[in-house]
Specification:
InterPro entries: Ald_DH/histidinol_DH (IPR016161), Ald_DH_C (IPR016163), Ald_DH_CS_CYS (IPR016160), Ald_DH_N (IPR016162), Aldehyde_DH_dom (IPR015590), MeMal-semiAld_DH (IPR010061). Belongs to the aldehyde dehydrogenase family. This is methylmalonate-semialdehyde dehydrogenase (CoA acylating). This protein is 37% helix and 21% strand. The chain is α/β, with parallel strands linked by helices. α1 crosses α6 (112-123) and α2 (12-23) packs across α3. The longest helix has 18 residues, at 27-44. It is globular, with a radius of gyration of 25 Å. The structure holds nicotinamide-adenine-dinucleotide. Residues 78-83, 105, 107-108, 137-138, 141, 156-158, 160-161, 164, 179-182, 213, 313, 315, 341, 380, 382, 386 line the site of nicotinamide-adenine-dinucleotide.
């Protein structure tokens, strides 16, 4: 893993260029994609201590008990399109350093970075057969779910695929961790630092063209939203939409023509159900890329919880604005949403932030932090419909996920002759 880390750093520009070319995100963002994955490789370098078991000497009568964590065997990972380097790196470095072999299925939409990472892993000395890549779509995924040799499946992607995989693989007795869709809300209180909060909303709403599972796609303004919305529009308008390779591009295209059409449809459904289109990015044309799947920053206001654009994950550069009369009402709106990946609050009140932290039902909570994805010594912690399984990705949970625990109870002493046979359940109590 030390060597892999060094090689990824050596080739980071090539990896980023591959991501931008296949996925469309800006080069700067593609570097971030690799860097956040690199953090997991660095975490895996500490596997010796992360995987340590526990030991209690002389639990009774000269008996010691200890636990060891052993590999599961063959594990598999199924990846989404939106982070072509980060998500594979969430999976295979921990899996193989825990002693497993790994079958990785990248997204069929942008498999290049996975191949490059596997080549780097081999150059770093990973033995042949430890990391394997298979390409394909539903049939290959189903074969992974059904294969008796595969013991565990890590999935990241949409709810339809994730719940299908969770059900099919669990029925076969496999361990599954499934990270799925999101609708991440920000609550903005009237006392928030306006400039900092607006910058955070714009960056987290439109970065990567909204195609991040931790994108902030919905904001709930408590109190008067008008001044906030006006300024949000001003800042969003200033963003540059262009090919990811153009140096000053802020956001690139969405992943496909189908995705573009779906996002257009959801925007239109919002308008038809009464939301106000404050900024419409649907007719954008990027010179030189007239056929590109670009959508400019789009903002809908007056959105309510019954609208399709609110209930569905849009996964595009579309920001929804909602209003609440009180902080309690805002928390209630967020908690009623079926997803629970992330949520953020913007405020200068410690008491409000603490209330938010306690009452909000989301895995990853940001306090004046828009995309609160923790470093890998913690775990990625989606909840509600955003996650299925028991053990989250990376951190301590990730190590537990990729290993099986075994407890050993041993006694090394000279047994006295003629001590007799006792058929009673052994206990540490003297009877
Ligand atoms: P997707 O579900 O379409 O595809 C993910 C993977 O599943 C791909 O490898 C694909 O080949 C496979 N797949 C798709 N449909 C399938 C089916 N019916 N049966 C079997 N396999 C199938 O997801 P996507 O569009 O690539 O990624 C976007 C989604 O991923 C969004 O919902 C986003 O929120 C989610 N995501 C979640 C996280 C997280 O950590 N919670 C992180 C990144 C992305």
């Amino acid at each position: 893993m030390f060597k892999l880390q060094e090689l990824i750093r050596r080739d980071i520009d090539k990896l980023a260029m591959n991501i931008t070319t296949e996925q469309g995100k800006t080069l700067k963002d593609a570097h971030g994609d690799v860097f956040r994955g690199l953090e997991v490789v660095e975490h895996a370098c500490g596997m010796a201590t992360l995987q340590m078991g526990e030991y209690v000497p002389n639990v009774s009568n000269g008996i010691d008990t200890y636990s060891i964590r052993e590999p599961l065997g063959v594990c598999a990972g199924i990846c989404p399109f939106n982070f072509p380097a980060l998500i594979p790196l969430w999976m295979f470095p921990l899996a193989v350093t825990c002693g497993n072999t790994f079958v990785l299925k990248p997204s069929e939409k942008d498999p290049g970075a996975s191949i490059m990472l596997a080549e780097l892993a081999m150059e770093a000395g990973l033995p042949n057969g430890v990391l394997n890549i298979v390409h394909g779509t539903n049939d290959v995924v189903n074969a992974i779910c059904d294969d008796d040799n595969i013991r565990a499946i890590s999935f990241v992607g949409s709810n339809i695929a994730g719940m299908h995989i969770y059900a099919r693989a669990s029925a076969k007795g496999k361990r599954v961790q499934s990270n799925m869709g999101a609708k991440n809300h920000a609550i903005v209180l009237p006392d928030a630092n306006m400039d900092a909060a607006l910058n955070a909303l714009v960056a987290a709403g439109f970065g990567a063209a909204g195609q991040r599972c931790m994108a902030l796609s919905t904001v709930v303004f408590v109190g008067d939203s008008q001044p906030w919305e006006n300024k949000l529009v001003e800042r969003a308008k200033a963003l540059k939409v262009n090919a990811g390779t153009v140096p000053d591009a802020d956001l690139g295209p969405v992943i496909s023509k189908q995705a573009k059409e779906r996002i257009h449809r959801l925007i239109q459904s919002g308008v038809e159900s009464g939301a106000k289109l404050l900024l419409d990015g649907r007719n954008i044309v990027v010179p030189g890329y007239e056929q590109g799947n670009f959508i400019g920053p789009t903002i809908l206001s007056g959105v309510t919880a019954d609208m399709e654009c609110y209930k569905e994950e849009i996964f595009g550069p579309v920001f929804l604005c909602m209003k609440a009369d009180s902080f309690e009402e805002a928390i209630d709106i967020v908690n009623r949403n079926k997803y629970g990946n992330g949520a953020a609050i913007f405020t200068t009140s410690g008491a409000a932030a603490r209330k938010f932290q306690t009452e909000i039902e989301a895995g990853q909570v940001g306090i004046n932090v828009p995309i609160p994805v923790p470093l890998p010594f913690f775990s990625f912690t989606g909840s509600k419909a955003s996650f299925a399984g028991d053990l989250n990705f990376y951190g301590k949970a990730g190590v537990n996920y990729f290993t099986q625990i075994k407890t050993i109870t041993q006694q090394w002493k000279d047994l006295a002759a003629g001590s007799g046979v006792s058929l009673a359940m052994p206990t540490s109590q003297k009877t």
